[in-house]
Design goal:
Radius of gyration: 30 Å
Largest sheet: 9 strands, antiparallel
Number of domains: 2
Structural class: mainly beta
Number of strands: 30
Length: about 450
């Protein structure tokens, strides 16, 4: 009888312990499921998703790698050493939950996702495009965020095809900026262009513009165009065309508005008066059309180069525009070209400078240029210094597809900067001024080539 009683007590205690454990396990399981469902809900319905096509770059691409960012996705992702970087701008700090919308054509893969010093791995599998939750990252400062992806391992031929970075969490609230319009993807990857519109200190006719240009060391990225002497009918500046080629470029728009130079009527075509030695002559299109001249010259960052432009009516209803360039290793001006623009009778107007990137693959890199000691010379021969400028931006910036572009003052020089996803904001329309230079250029106009 005593043994039976002890057995019943033991079984009762065991039942209570089992029931308690089951209840606790049920609570833990429900809590885990709730968290998983919440994360799944966030990543399947994120506050926003960032399209790879307009916001990503191959920031590390080994020789022979096949990765490519198309107008729709990251494709051909096979090399484990390639780094794909996606950028977007946040206005808040806190927790940032990152996800990926991806498809794995065959097998499965493991991908590393990095923001700052935090990295997490995610396993991807399945041909259907799926929203994957990577995890939470901490954002300590508002501004541009860079999300790096790198393949770790794969059982199939590709790590994944990727269309979007999915973003949620407290840091994703508020204002965010990234390219969300497919019509802007190409321009957003190039980066926003920015300009300085100079205040001309006279209302009389201007025959010459003079400008001195310096590209700081390290700011001469491939794809950069540093335009020094812009005017109403054309532009004159310096480019980085490749790792081995740089140019001095001078172009004049046709008065006939078209992006195809073949459509320009004969009486509206830009006519070459003369070209300097070694200067290539042709036509350009796609951003208006007209006559183009360029001189291959390996200019160097850190050096200062001088640009001189002339524009005067020829007395027959046309205007002649002539550009000269002076490098620091010589005392003789180099003629780039002289063009005749029909249907035009004017002196120089609308002096401006700009910086742009024309290579989308390098749009994540920054570039900078300084302009100083600027002058205009009137048709009566008076030199007048330029000391004021207004900052402006292009449509990519105005549409808030990307806003890493700024202007400012460095000492007694104006500067422009774009690319690199920096966080300083200079409002378009901001006015700048420098101390007006006092020593006018010493140019022997009678001996200009």
């Amino acid at each position: 009888m005593r043994l039976k009683l002890l057995t019943e007590i033991f079984l009762g205690i065991a039942f209570l312990v089992f029931q308690s454990c089951a209840e606790n396990n049920s609570i833990a399981t429900e809590d885990t499921i709730s968290k998983q469902n919440k994360a799944s809900s966030l990543i399947n319905n994120p506050p926003f998703s960032v399209p790879v096509a307009g916001n990503s770059f191959l920031t590390v691409k080994p020789s022979g790698a096949n990765e490519v960012i198309t107008s729709a996705k990251l494709a051909n992702w096979t090399n484990p050493n390639t780094v794909i970087s996606t950028y977007f701008r946040l206005s808040n700090t806190g927790t940032l939950n990152i996800g990926l919308k991806a498809s794995v054509p065959s097998g499965s893969s493991i991908v590393k996702v990095t923001i700052g010093n935090e990295s997490k791995n995610i396993t991807l599998t399945g041909l259907a495009y799926t929203n994957y939750t990577v995890g939470d990252f901490t954002i300590s400062n508002p501004g541009y965020v860079k999300v790096d992806l790198q393949g770790v391992s794969k059982t199939g031929g590709y790590f994944a095809d990727l269309t979007d970075i999915l973003v949620s969490g407290s840091a994703a609230t508020g204002t965010h900026i990234f390219s969300n319009d497919p019509s802007y993807y190409y321009w957003a990857r190039r980066g926003p262009s920015c300009h300085l519109n100079y205040t001309i200190p006279t209302n009389t006719n201007v025959s010459y513009y003079y400008n001195e240009v310096t590209i700081p060391i390290g700011e001469d990225k491939i794809g950069s165009y540093f335009m020094a002497n812009g005017f109403k009918e054309g532009y004159f500046g310096m480019q980085v065309n490749s790792a081995t080629e740089r140019r001095i470029l001078f172009s004049v728009w046709s008065p006939f508005e078209t992006d195809d130079p073949n459509n320009i009527p004969p009486d509206h075509k830009i006519v070459l008066n003369r070209a300097g030695s070694g200067v290539s002559i042709g036509e350009f299109g796609n951003e208006g059309s007209g006559g183009q001249s360029y001189y291959k010259y390996n200019w160097t960052a850190g050096q200062t180069y001088k640009f001189l432009l002339k524009g005067e009516p020829d007395g027959n209803g046309k205007t002649d525009y002539t550009a000269w360039f002076l490098s620091p290793e010589t005392t003789s001006w180099k003629l780039i070209a002289s063009w005749k623009r029909p249907q035009t009778s004017t002196y120089l107007k609308g002096f401006y400078s700009f910086v742009e990137n024309f290579e989308p693959e390098n749009g994540y890199q920054g570039r900078k240029v300084e302009f100083k000691n600027q002058w205009v010379r009137t048709s009566s021969g008076n030199w007048m210094a330029i000391s004021g400028a207004r900052f402006s931006v292009d449509n990519t910036y105005n549409a808030e597809q990307r806003i890493d572009a700024m202007g400012g003052i460095n000492g007694n020089a104006f500067f422009l900067q774009n690319g690199g996803f920096f966080n300083t904001v200079v409002n378009p329309g901001t006015q700048f001024s420098v101390t007006a230079p006092t020593q006018a250029p010493n140019i022997d106009f009678s001996n200009l080539p």
